Amino acid sequence: MASAIPDRALIAGIGQTEFSRNSGRSELQLAAEASLAALDDAGLEPADVDGMVTYTLDSSGELELMRIVGVKELSYYSRAPYGGAATCAVVMHAAAAIAAGAANVVLIYRAFNERSGRRFGLPQGPAQVSPSGSFWWRWYIPFGLDTPAKWAALHFQRYMHAYGVTNEDFGHYSVACRSYAAANPNAYFYQRPITLEEHQNSRWIVEPVLRLLDCCQESDGGVALVITGRERARDLRRPPARIAAAAQCALWGGDIVSDYYHDDIAGMPEIGAIGRQLWTQSGLRPRDIQAAMLYDHFSPIVFMHLEEFGFCGRGEARDFIQSGNIGPGGSLPVNTHGGLLGEAYIHGVNHINEAVRQLRGAAVNQVSDVEHVLVSAGMSGLILGRWS
Amino acid sequence: MKRTAPLITRDDQFFWDGVAAGELRLQRCARCNRMRHPPAPVCPFCHSLDWRVDRASGRGTLYSYVIPRHTPIESGGDPVVVALIELEEGARLVSNLSGAAIDEIRNGMPVEVFFADFENGLRLHQFRPARR
C-alpha cells in the first residue's frame, strides 16, 4: 500500500534555544522558548496549534506547555519512544496526523538539561532499566556495560572486525564534523577545529572503538518544529521544507543502542529498512540527495548510515569519508552544522533544523543547489525537499 | 569487586536460578524445539507457551568485545573486558572475558563459561579462554 505521507505536509518553522552545558533554567522553559521561536519563524501563533508531538523521554507535559505558551485546543498529540530513535519519528507522526486530517498545525518539541541535569552518559542503574522501557539493557548492566558509549561500542567493534576498520578511520569523521562546527556560532566546537592527531591523542572511552572525540556532547537546550499541511504554504513567514518522505521502523530482534542479536551486526539493518521506505516514498535515489544529517551520538554510526543508505558499499564508508565526500564541496556533505559531535546533542532534533536551513539557503556551511536533504536517526528518517 | 545485580523478571527467573546453581540455562520451545535468548514467555516461531530449559554446554566463541575505560567496576587492576559471546547453541549473550591478555583477545577465539561470586552474594556467569 502506498504511503499517504509524502508531500502532504511541510516543515513550516524551526526554533531553538542556545545550546550549552548549563542552561540555568527549567526544561519546561527551554521547551517553551524553542516552541515560540519555531512558531514565530513560521509566522503562526500558539492559538493556531492543534497538534503536539514529542519524545516519550521529554519531561515537559503537553498540558503544561499548552498552558504556558497559550495553545487553546489540541485534536492530536502523541509521543515517540526509544530516545534518539524518535528524532524523525516525531515528524512522521505529525505528517501522518496532517495527512489523516487529525490536525492542521503540529508543534514538535524536545528540550532538556542533559548536561546540567540528568546526564545520559553516566552509568545507568537498575532504576533506569525497566523491562518495558529499555528492552534488554538489564542483561548488560551487571557486566559493566552500563552506558550508551559502551552499549554502542560492543556493536561497532563487530563492524571494525568485519571490515578492518580502525579507530583512526573513525577519526576522519570526527575531524570532518568538527571543521563544520568550527564555523557554527551555535556549536560547542565553534572556532575549535580538531586534527586527526588530536583525535588519536584523546583518551579512550571504550577501547578499541571510541575515544573522547568520537562521543557527542551531553548538552542543555531545546529545539522545536512546526508542521503544517502544504495548503498553508502561502501563509508562512519563511520558505518551508517539503516532507518528501518520513519513515519509522523496528525490526525483529532489534535493540536500542545495543543491536547484538541480528544475524549480521556489522551494519544496522534498521537503517537499511528506513532507506527502503524513504526511497520508495520519495521516488528518489542516493544520487538525488545533496546533503545528509546523520544521527551521530558516536562517530562509527555515521559509517553504518552511509553504507546502509547506499551512498557507498558495505565496508566502503572509510574510503568514502577519507576521499572528502562528506566535507565542503564533497558529493554528500554530512552534518554541516557539526552534528551531535560538534554542535550539540539535542537528541537529534537539531539535525532537522539544519536540514531546513540547508533547504532555505540559510546554513552557515551552505551547500550549493540543495534540492533534497536526508535526515536519519537509525530507526526513523526523513527526506526533506526545497519548496518552490 | 562490586557489580550491579541484574533486574530479574518472571520471564527470566529460570536463567538466574541457573546461574546461582552454577549452570548456564537456555530456553527451548517444547513444541518446535527452537532455542531462544534472551528469554521470552512465548515462542516467536510457533507461538507455543510451553518451553523447557536446556543446560548449555558453556562453550562458545568471542563475537565482539570492548574494554570500557570509564567503568564503575573494581577489577583488582586488570581491565574489565565486556564480551559478546556466541554460544555453540547459537545464542548471543553479554558477559565478561577474563584470563586473557589484552593483546591475545581476538574475535572468534574459543571461550568457556565459569561462575564468579561478587559482593552481596551475587553470582554471575563469566567466560575465559577455552582450555584445549
Keyphrases for this structure?
A: 388 residues, alpha/beta, Peroxisomal Thiolase, Chain A, domain 1, B: 132 residues, mainly beta, OB fold (Dihydrolipoamide Acetyltransferase, E2P), 2 domains, 1 helix, 6% helix
Describe the structure in your own words.
The complex is a heterodimer of chains A (388) and B (132). By secondary structure, chain A is of the alpha/beta class. Chain A has one domain (9-117, 217-386): Peroxisomal Thiolase, Chain A, domain 1 (3-Layer(aba) Sandwich), CATH 3.40.47. Chain A has helices spanning 27-42, 62-69, 89-99, 148-163, 167-181, 196-201, 269-282, 300-308, 317-322, 339-342, 349-360, and strands at 9-16, 51-55, 76-80, 105-113, 204-207, 210-211, 220-229, 241-248, 291-294, 372-376, 380-386. In chain A, helix 1 (27-42) crosses helix 2 (62-69). The radius of gyration of chain A is 19 Å and the shape is globular. Chain B is mainly beta. Chain B has a five-stranded antiparallel β-sheet with strand order 6-5-4-7-8, with no helix packed on it. In chain B, strands 2-1-3 form a three-stranded antiparallel β-sheet, covered by helices on one side. Classes of the chains: A alpha/beta (388), B mainly beta (132). The interface between A and B is medium-sized, with 35 and 30 residues.
